[in-house]
User: What shape does this take?
Amino acid sequence: MAISEVADSLQSLTIDNEASSPLSATTQPDIEYHPNEENWKARTARRLAEDPSLPKSTLPAGFPTRLESPLVWEGKDWKDELEWVYNLTPEHLKEIDDAVHHFHGLSKPLGELSRSTFPLPTLAPILSTLAHALYTGRGFFVLRTIPVSSYSHEDNIIIYAGISSHVAPLRGVQDLNAGVLAHIKDLSKTHLAKTIGAPAYTTDKQVFHTDVGDIVALFALETAHEGGVSRISSSWRVYNELAETRPDLIKTLSEDWPFDGFGGDPPYTLRPLLFNHDSKIITQYARRSFTGFLGLPRSTSIPPITEAQAEALDTIHFLAEKYNLGLNFQKGDIQYINNLSIFHARDRFVDTPEKTRHLLRLWLRNEELAWKLPEKLEPIWKRLYYSAMPDEHRFPVEPEIRAASKGGAKY
Assistant: This one.
């Protein structure tokens, strides 16, 4: 259903720039981390009734009326997973195993994992081609499958970082003390709810969002007993629908929003969610920055979001859901997505002692292929990719909750 039809059917990481002025809203709208479709439709109907001209608004200056690119797709466009899955051959797996032994022989810290220290003679050119597809093609692929049960935790990390260095050599710092590897796993049974501020550490559904950085890579050490489907959606397809049916929401998304610092300094920062830069549309946001989650509720001492922003948040979620592709993520798979043009999400899941969902995450960048960044994102990227030397990088072997999911951190 087009957004402009809703009324008829019903009758809806921060940057370093210091926030300067409060926004116009005085109270936080009725919106939570988990989107409520009825509330979204009601809000949309109410706003369209108050101002029927919204769908006839003009786009912000310079924003395209339509994007044409392989990065514009719908889930139904993909008929066979072989279109995005690359199956590793026995020869490739032997090459990877040889690279593990080669790296151990160098006696170097894990931060020194690179194309040269983890050589893949025949697989490397294939990974280079797939890397181009991330930036200029469909924007995602899955590498299948690493025999994770045959390796130690540390060796699986070596394999993951080593292979990924051939896709995008730079690893982003995700946590304090130069932590470049994150564990995505339910920790709600071992940690108090008040210490968990992100759905990554629960079995909850994760709504559509982006991380930070160019490329998000996820490595499945184990999948859930039930559920936990990884979902992706083209933000460029979502943009096209908004540009056609609700250009006013494009304007809303391209204006400054109050990102919650959750107790940090400054307490909130301002930047857009949507950028038009160097002929690219870039979306960067996490919903919990505006709604809070579990142990990190939305701060009450900072400006609330507006009704227009609340509608925009729900709209991009439900449109992403409408056009999503569910990936058949298997144990040992590595999933790579273009974080600048693709939203990702996850279904709720159920673990058992025998099947406990456990993913590893890297935030990657390929400088040779990388898009130019809008000025307001540059401080984030500088901090991610250039704040620590490789030999300082930390790869935690066991799961831990990131500082940013506890509040008051920069990452």
User: Anything to note?
Assistant: The chain has one domain: 1-9+31-411. The radius of gyration is 21 Å. The longest helix spans residues 90-106.
